[in-house]
C-alpha cells in the first residue's frame, strides 16, 4: 500500500466525526467543510506525528479542532481579510447562513431536536467541544484531553459545567 | 434532570452532521493531487536521512515522515528551485492559493478598494480593472500579494462562472511577446503592455483565457491605467 493510500485508509473513515465536530464548533456548513479540508491537508503533512499503534481518531480530531479554533479566532479578528465594500459583505452573507434555526425548517423537524440543538449551540465553543466529543462521538476523557489539549481534570470540570447549563436550558424549554 | 437523562437526550436528538459526498470527493482529490506531487528523489533523500537519525522510524514510519516532510518541502521548493520555469512557478502559486489560500487578502469587486490596498505592500502600483471585465463575465474577487520567483507579486483573483482566474503582474520593460501555454492541465496567457508583464493562470479553457487576456488588454488600453493609486482610502 502506498503512503497516500495508507493515509486515505486512516483518515477517510474519520471524515464523518471530523465534519460533525467542525460543524458544531463553527456552526456553519461552508466553514465546516473548509475546515475539514484544511485539516486533512495538515494531517497529510504531519502524518509523522501519528505514532505507530496510536489511535488515529483523537489525533485527527485534534487537528480538526485546532483548525476550527483558528478559524473562529480569525472570524473574530477578521485579521487577514479586509472587507470594505458592500458587494463583498453580501457575498459573504450569502455564503454563511444564519446559525439561528430556520423556523420553517424547524416545523418539519422534531421538537426535541430543535431544542437540543439550540441548547448545544448556546454553549461556548470550549464547552460545546467537550460535549460533542463525549456525547456525540463517545470518546473517553483521555482522548478528549488529548484533542482539546487540556488536562483530564479540566475535561471533567468543563463537562460538568456544560451539562449543568444544558440541563438548565432544556428544563426551561420543558424537556424531557 | 439527571446526567443520564441529559445524555440520552443528547445522544438521541442532537443533530449529527455527516460529511457530504462533495466534501469526501474534495478530500480524496486533494490526496490524489498531493500524492502526485511527491518528488521521488526528495523522498529517497529524506528516507536515508531518517534512517540515520531514527532507526526505529526507518520502516513504515520513516516512509510516512518522508512523505509528510516532502510535502511540506514541496510548498517551498517551487520558489527556491533554480530549474522551476516561470510558467511552472505560476501554476504552483495558483494551485497553492486554491488549495491552502488565501485566494485574496482584500475582498472587493471595486478597483478603488483593491488598488489602494496594494499601497505600501509593493514597490509598484498594479493595474486593477473591474467594470470593463465584469461586463464580459469576469468578476473581480479581490487581490493578494504572492511570492513568484521569490518576489512579492501583485495578484488579482477573478471569477468566471465557477472558475478562478489569477492574474499576476510585475513591472517589466520591455515586456515579452504574448504567449499562451498549458501546464499540468492549467492554461496560461502572458502579455505585456510595455510597462507591466502580465500572466493569467486558470483552469478555464485556452480560448476563454485568451478572451480574458484580450478583454484585459482592450480595457487597459482604454485607460484602466489612469486610475492612480494616489487617492486616499482609509484602511482599517
CATH topology of the largest domain in chain A: Rna Polymerase Sigma Factor, Chain: A
Q: Oligomer, anyone?
A: heterodimer
Put simply, the count of helices of chain A is 10
Order of helices and strands of chain B: HHHHHEHHEEEEEEH
Number of helices of chain B: 8
The dominant shape of chain A is globular
Major beta sheet of chain B, specifics?
Answer: 7 strands, antiparallel
Name of the CATH superfamily of the largest domain in chain B: MucB/RseB, C-terminal domain
Which fold name corresponds to the CATH topology of the largest domain in chain B? Answer: Phosphorylase Kinase, domain 1
Count every beta strand of chain B, where a strand is a DSSP E run of 2 or more residues.
7
Overall CATH class of the largest domain in chain B: Alpha Beta
Task: Give the C-alpha Rg of chain B.
Answer: 23 Å
Instruction: Assign the CATH architecture of the largest domain in chain B.
Output: 2-Layer Sandwich
Termini separation of chain A comes to 50 Å
Structural class of chain A: mainly alpha
CATH class division of the largest domain in chain A: Mainly Alpha
Estimate the strand proportion of chain A.
under 5%
Biggest interface goes to: A-B, 57 and 57 residues
The whole-angstrom Rg of chain A is: 18 Å
Amino acid at each position: 500500500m502506498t503512503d497516500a493510500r495508507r493515509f486515505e485508509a486512516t483518515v477517510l473513515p474519520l471524515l464523518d466525526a471530523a465534519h460533525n465536530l467542525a460543524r458544531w464548533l463553527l456552526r456553519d456548513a461552508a466553514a465546516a467543510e473548509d475546515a475539514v479540508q484544511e485539516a486533512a491537508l495538515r494531517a497529510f503533512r504531519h502524518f509523522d506525528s501519528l505514532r505507530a499503534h496510536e489511535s488515529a481518531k483523537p489525533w485527527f480530531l485534534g487537528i480538526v479542532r485546532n483548525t476550527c479554533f483558528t478559524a473562529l479566532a480569525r472570524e473574530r479578528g477578521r485579521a487577514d481579510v479586509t472587507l470594505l465594500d458592500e458587494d463583498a459583505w453580501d457575498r459573504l452573507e450569502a455564503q454563511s447562513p444564519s446559525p439561528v434555526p430556520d423556523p420553517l425548517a424547524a416545523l418539519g423537524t422534531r421538537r426535541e431536536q430543535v431544542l437540543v440543538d439550540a441548547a448545544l449551540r448556546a454553549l461556548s465553543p470550549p464547552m460545546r467541544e467537550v460535549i460533542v466529543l463525549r456525547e456525540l462521538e463517545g470518546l473517553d476523557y483521555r482522548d478528549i484531553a488529548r484533542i482539546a489539549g487540556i488536562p483530564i481534570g479540566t475535561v471533567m470540570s468543563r463537562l460538568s459545567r456544560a451539562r449543568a447549563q444544558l440541563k438548565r436550558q432544556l428544563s426551561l424549554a420543558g424537556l424531557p | 434532570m439527571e446526567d443520564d437523562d441529559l445524555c440520552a437526550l443528547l445522544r438521541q436528538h442532537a443533530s449529527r452532521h455527516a460529511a457530504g459526498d462533495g466534501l469526501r470527493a474534495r478530500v480524496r482529490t486533494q490526496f490524489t493531487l498531493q500524492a502526485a506531487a511527491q518528488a521521488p528523489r526528495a523522498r529517497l533523500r529524506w528516507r536515508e536521512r531518517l534512517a540515520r537519525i531514527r532507526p526505529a522510524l526507518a520502516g513504515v514510519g520513516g516512509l510516512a515522515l518522508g512523505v509528510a516532510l516532502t510535502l511540506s518541502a514541496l510548498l517551498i521548493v517551487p520558489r527556491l528551485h533554480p530549474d522551476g520555469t516561470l510558467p511552472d512557478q505560476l501554476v504552483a502559486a495558483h494551485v497553492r492559493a486554491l488549495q491552502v489560500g488565501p485566494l485574496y487578502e482584500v475582498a472587493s469587486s471595486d478597483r478603488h478598494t483593491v488598488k489602494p490596498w496594494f499601497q505600501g505592500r509593493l514597490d509598484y502600483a498594479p493595474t486593477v480593472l473591474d467594470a470593463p471585465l465584469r461586463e464580459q463575465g469576469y468578476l473581480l474577487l479581490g487581490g493578494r500579494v504572492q511570492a513568484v520567483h521569490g518576489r512579492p507579486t501583485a495578484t488579482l483573483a477573478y471569477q468566471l462562472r465557477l472558475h478562478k482566474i489569477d492574474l499576476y503582474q510585475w513591472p517589466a520593460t520591455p515586456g515579452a511577446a504574448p504567449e499562451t501555454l498549458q501546464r499540468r492541465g492549467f492554461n496560461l496567457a502572458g502579455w505585456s503592455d510595455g510597462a507591466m508583464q502580465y500572466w493569467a493562470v486558470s483552469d478555464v479553457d485556452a480560448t476563454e483565457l485568451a478572451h480574458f487576456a484580450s478583454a484585459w488588454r482592450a480595457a487597459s488600453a482604454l485607460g484602466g491605467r489612469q486610475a492612480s493609486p494616489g487617492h486616499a482610502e482609509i484602511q482599517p
